[in-house]
Amino acid sequence: MELFGLSLACYLLGALCALVFGGREAANRLAPAAAVAGSLAGLAGVLGAPVSAVSTLSLPWGLPLGAFSLGLDPTTRLFLLPVYILGAAAAVSGSLHLAGHEAAHAGGDRRGPHWFCFNILLFGLSLVMAARDGVLFLIAWEIMSLAPFFLISLHDDEADVREAAWLYLVAAHIGAVCLIAFFTLAMGQAGGSSFEAIAAAASAGRLTAPTLLFLLALVGFAAKVGLIPFHVWLPDVYAAAPSHVTAVMAGGMINVGIYGLWRTLELLGPPALWQGWLLAALGLASALYGILRALAQGNLKRLLAYSSVENMGLVCLGLGLGLIGRASGNDAMAVLGFSGAVFHMLCHAGFKGLLFLCVGEVLAAVGSMRIAHLGGLAKRLPVVGGAFFLAAAGIAGLPPLPGFLGELVLALAILTGVDLPGLLPRVGMAAALTALAAVGGFALAAFAKAGGLAFLGQPRTPAAAKAASPAGPALVPILFLAGCLLLAATLAPGLLGLAGQAALAFPGMDPAPARTALAGACAIARTVSLYSAGIVVLSLVLLWLRRLLIAAHGRRRGPTWGCGYTAGTARVQYGAASFVEPTSQILGQPMGLTRRLDMDPGLFPKRAQLFVTSPDVIRSRFFTPLFEAIARGCDALKVVQHGRVHLYILYVLATVVLLLAWKL
Amino acid sequence: MDALAHLLAALLLAPLLPGIINRVKARLSGRVGRPLFQTYFDLARLVQKGVVESETSSWMLPLGPVVSLATAAIALTLLPGPAGPSPAAFTGDFILAAYCLGLGRLALILAALDSGSSFEGMGASREAAFSALAEPVLFLCLLALAADAPDISLSGMLGRGLTGSLAPERLFVPVILFILLLTENCRIPVDDPNTHLELTMIHEVMVLDHSGPDMAAIVYGSSLKLWFFAAATVLSVLPVRAMPPVAGWAVFLAGLAVVAIAVGLVESSMARLRLIRVPRLLGAAGTLAALSLVLTVWR
Prior knowledge:
Radius of gyration of chain A: 26 Å
Structural class of chain A: mainly alpha
Shape of chain B: globular
Number of helices of chain B: 12
Number of strands of chain B: 1
Strand order of the largest sheet of chain A: 1-2
Number of helices of chain A: 26
Low-confidence stretches of chain B: none
Number of strands of chain A: 5
Oligomer: heterodimer
Order of helices and strands of chain B: HHHEHHHHHHHHH
Helix content of chain A: over 70%
Strand content of chain B: under 5%
């Protein structure tokens, strides 16, 4: 707890530094350094104590409402882990990228406020996950939700960036409204603001509308996580925000929604079966939709954003499976679902953070994130390319990386659930496993596309051909994260055991069957580790054999086989749209791909053009009409807003009279 | 012990399967055909050649063949032998096997894109699309086997044959596995391994820029993958585990030869499907798998 407090203090100190040194280079050094120090202190706190230890801290605070009570337990510790690791890596990366170049900004040097908000974001994230009081949680939530708005709009001279920042703010507050309603109702009915009081009221059956509370929390947290249909803010925001900010948002911030959902489920007492099925279905739908949309994207950051939707969907599936297990008394399934969710969350955070840092380096080297402008970067940026492929294989859930274990544990939860009584649950579980397999297959396709087209082949533009590898220090955060992930790969069974601690702490869990199931999963994880090592060793042996053979028989370089056509250029290579053409023949509708071919019908056709775009159907068919309708409604209300003060006073009078009449 | 024997048999005999297929195709079209052991000769010749690498390619190129061979070999160790289970068997090991093969596929796709060739890009994009569709079908089909298996692992589900009352829904499983064999190993009607037109190929066009030992690794790796699916098909039909070991082995190997002959017959009697039709074939297999699963659960 002391180290956790120290980390909070470091973040606040960093924020203060950034304000004091506002427009100077010093702010760009000291504030990130404080963020790194805070993260390392927090990390030491998390790793230093046994993960299952529970500690609490209460401090006096001046507000009439709530209490400043913090706590650390397995769930909090595990969800804090990616915040600290990515916070440190992103602070270093951001500091290097912003060094020197921001001073030329039209509106003056923005780095002071930027680093202020960065530290505040990390502070808010830590506070949300440690809060044990409804009011404190809401305040921390608001701090954590507001800071990214300013972080996204660092380069606000671009219209896209301004629009994305507003989009984020709207999405964040749609969620926040539901959460405020949730906590106000829950705290009102429980008669206290602490989580303990709410949990006690729930177990005593004093919460009158548990269904409404569950749905409010679900909408509130889903908006943060980016489950469909609330995912619409992710692609635009990730594409507009600076890469180091995106790394923290994708790896640390959206998890907070899962964390909140987890906490809520703990607070609301024994879950109902339908809640589990709802979460599982929502998760699977998000996963399938997200990965199909990711496959359709031609912009690396948007692709990664949709892949976040997919992975958060899988985490949500894990939560749903856990709830189904809890509600039907199958604690083996519950513990597998919950620990699979936490493990997958951790893997996603690491891999996605690394991917965004790599894309940041690509953006700095080439000046574009569009696949159509990239190509052949693995030769020019070998370290970045290697890290990108590592993370891509990991996030596609392939062995020997730990991402596979996360998907395997989710599948084990499903396989345990096949024993559920009744035909419908069994069919549901079979459908879930099938969908999981489809998500895995499409994730492989999406990341083969992202890595293969951006980093391999010939450069598609002169800028990509001239790209230079980033200087040594810029590679440090990437190598640090890649090292963390390789370490996680070797320690995967142990990490699964830690994730299981959070699952075991879920209220109402019968420890005996849950522990047996967890031990079984850990044994499987050890076999998988053995197999992973086997893949690596066998591949290395074969590479060595290949080298021996080549040493004996020689190696030549020649042009790529062009099937008899020798005048090929980089532009005839497969591109982002052509790579997914076979898939879009089958699944074009859910992928949202639209094609427009401009062709001259004459006998001597001129230049033809093909436009392939992928607008998000949920945004264009659902949210845009919804918000336009709201805007029209607000316009209609302008009748009552006319500027005549005496009529305004009449409104006040009428309201008071109505209220009096209603209450008396 | 038996699993080790199976692994050895697979490593030694896998190149025989393409030989049998080619022989059947040649005989049916009235030719004598290549020797049965032609794949071994090809491998021996390729290993002794030098490598020609594309000027465009990077460090990814050698990884494709190497990783695809390594993962195919590793996936084989999860398959039960004809007389006993795999020593590594665990609940859900079929997922590890499928994802191992997936890693090999990703490596090959990336190696193909590494050459910067539009033809290889074409093959890579088709491979990515069709294999993404094949994976859920495989899982569904195995789930149908899992319903009355002692445990949900490859060793528990395969090798028991069509047990109990000869349930009609169980007959679908080998059919589905056979369709998956044709898809995953790029045989007619999904892909034509012998075509000479790059535009129509999937697997063969992806490996255009590999030569020498790299090509040998790819040819050998794809034989191992063919063995994996052929063995799974055989083990899903024949109760080899219930027979005495020697008879089990004999029946198993004969079954593999029959599968290879069946592939040859299909290749001789059918044309390649239009690429747009391939998903329908997989969809049909998926529907069969779902039907089989629902019927199994129903009982």
